[in-house]
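Write out a record, focusing on structure:
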Amino acid sequence: MSTHAQKLGNVLIPVSDLDKAVTFYTEALGLTLKFRDGDRFAALDAGGVTIALAAPAEQVAGSATAPSYKVGDVAEAVRDLTASGAELVSGPETGPHEIRAVLRDPSGNVLVLYSSL
């Protein structure tokens, strides 16, 4: 394959209420808030892994918890992975902060690929 994952960028967790989720993950679980985009999205530090809380407007993987992998070129990575048995669910598309695509691996697990704008 010509395009490989550069890193596990985050674990995307769908939430119904971002305020409640941020409070739970920061106060109850003790994670540190790194970034918040209004009522859409929040990134938290979980000791080297980012937990990405996604409100309904940002639930690109639907209701599934999904790892997000940073790649150099999303379209090329989609071509490589679908040729290796993955199924494209959506994308590539431009989101508010990145280019992304959602796929299912050969076992049906959801994963997200992204690259910076």
In short: The chain has one domain: 7-116.
